Amino acid sequence: MYKSSKISKLSVWFVLILLGILTYIPIVIMLSMSFRNNGQIYSDFWGLPSPWIWKNYKEAFEGIGRSIFNSVFVSGIATIGVVFLSSLSGYVFARLQFPGRNFFYLLILSLMMIPGVLTLMPLYAQISGYGLLNTWWALLLPWIAGGQVFGIILCRTFLEALPNELFECSRIDGATEFTNYWRIAVPLTMPILITLAVMNMIGNYNDFIWPLLTISGEKLQMVTVQLQKIGVDSSNNVQYGQRMAAYIISCLPLLVLFSFGMKYYVSGVTSGAVKG
């Protein structure tokens, strides 16, 4: 019995290690390609760089440095808007009683059943009609509005599970509803809010289709679109070393974000699972 249990544990560890190795193989290949030119890649795809071409990173950063700032800046503002409005709306739906509360919440919930691709062209026509094309407002407004659905559901579900006595005692002491939201609800839901912020930041930063449709000026362009122009020479040949270096550089802001927010992200995911 002990021997079979030990064998099963070893089998599980073997499978996990194998999956981990398979997961990191594409990353290792991308790193290797980023230090080579096309000649090295085509002649020996699995080989190591010889010599190491460090200028790929310099040229890649010159091509996408501004767009990385654009993506971080616009995605950050949109994320702040989503977190604030979602937490405020979640508090209203969870802690306040008003006519039609459940009806409006069900309407919001039903929006999750509509694929985003179906609203792509109507949203584009709306933004175009407002004269917002090729401005950051064309990104900010849809990103903030689009993140509300999941955010409201997440915040409302968590806030409903909090003891009502916390808010009743505060009201007896003369606190307003906004005070209850800001001083009680927000601190208690901080792991959920950080989880929501990380998810929205990653989603907005990685968005490709919407910036491609609405932003045409290179100075305002997002990094996901700008990446497609990196490493393309005058003959329309792609220098894959520069392209891979640009991919790695563009990943760094998200790696930094997740490294600092991972503790709270995991806490928010697990607490959300328990509360749900």
Automatic annotation (TrEMBL):
Primary localization class, coarse: membrane
Q: Which residue range or ranges hold the ABC transmembrane type-1 domain?
A: 68-261
GO cellular component, alphabetical, reads: plasma membrane
Does this entry carry the keyword Transport? yes
Q: Which Gene3D superfamilies match?
A: MetI-like (1.10.3720.10)
One of the GO BP terms on file: transmembrane transport
One Pfam match, given by its short name, reads: BPD_transp_1
Which keywords are on file for this protein? Cell membrane, Membrane, Transmembrane, Transmembrane helix, Transport
Q: Does this UniProt record's set of keywords contain Membrane?
A: yes
By its UniProt entry, which InterPro entries does this protein fall under?
A: MetI-like (IPR000515), MetI-like_sf (IPR035906)
Q: Where are the transmembrane segments?
A: 12-35, 68-91, 103-124, 136-159, 180-202, 244-266
Q: What family, per the record?
A: Belongs to the binding-protein-dependent transport system permease family.
Name of this protein: Carbohydrate ABC transporter permease
Taxonomic placement: Bacteria, Bacillati, Bacillota, Bacilli, Bacillales
